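Batch job 17 of 40 flagged for manual review because the log was empty.
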Amino acid sequence: MKNRIIAILIGLSVMVPATYAQKPKKSPAAPAVLEAWSDPAAIQKAMDEAYVKFKDLKEGKNADYIKELAKVDPNIFGIAIVTADGKIYTAGDLKSAVSIQSISKVFTMARVIEEQGPRAIKDKIGVDATGMRFNSIIAVELQKGKEINPLVNPGAIAATSLVNGADSAAKWKSILATHSDFAGRELYLDIPVYISEAGDNLRNQAIAHLLKAYGRMYWDPVEATDVYTKQCAISVNARDLAIMAGTLANGGVNPVTKKKVVSAETVKYTLPVMATAGLYDDAGQWLYATGLPAKSGVGGGIIAVVPGKFGIAVISPPLSPAGNSLRAIYSIRHIIEALGVNPYQITPRQ
């Protein structure tokens, strides 16, 4: 009887459907390989390499046509990256501040686009590179105030005049608040730099009056020039600039504070102008080397944006003849290459 029961059980085990049979154990999945740009160790390594490689560079000199800028410590050198999900990586000097100068043009342009739409910039200022110096009067005269862009002085002063506000105080308040929201903290005006620039901005006033003559200035030219001068004297450090760039990389939402500063639509129209006209006379060379929208300022800062990934900023006052920080150029190029984030670097399908 016992043997019969055993035989029956053996038979039943053979008849068990496969769906009820014990499934074989799966081998553990191999860990995903991080791309360099999303690997914290790779990001920090690239930044540290750039800092060590270029910290002793002696090329370039501070801007001296603004007297206060000539006094800034040329040894200041800070690098920061802020990712779209709010992670912050740094190397070097993050405490020393410089005046933002022409980098401010990006954020005032973004404010105008946000308030009045992209056509306001395209129709009332222009979006073409001028092919001339950032403060060229000839570029205004040749085009009768048209077909310039908001990242050279004439277009930037016009953009400042377009910012919403009943008077110059209201316009300035809006511009400073916009910059502060992008940076994630309250920024302030560097008074000595402002006084130095305001006492010697006759050329910019002349540009503003010429634009007025061509119907391309949208507020009092003297007051617009003064507000523009103030925005250039906003004080920032490398971390501030990286958060500002990171906000652009994150479609207008500050990745650290999570505050929506401008819309993704505004960012879509801001980045192309940075790509074509962001680094003065060397904008083409920069785009050729990195593929990234960027903006420099004669205070020594450069920001660059890797859309959807991160923003990067470097501060180092000594400039190239074109007015761009040399340590910043070399450092950002090194980091972009190390992390493989040039958008034109395409791996072919096999």
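Reviewer: the log was empty due to a logging misconfiguration, but the result itself is present. DSSP finds 15 helices and eight strands in the chain. Unflagging and moving on to job 18.
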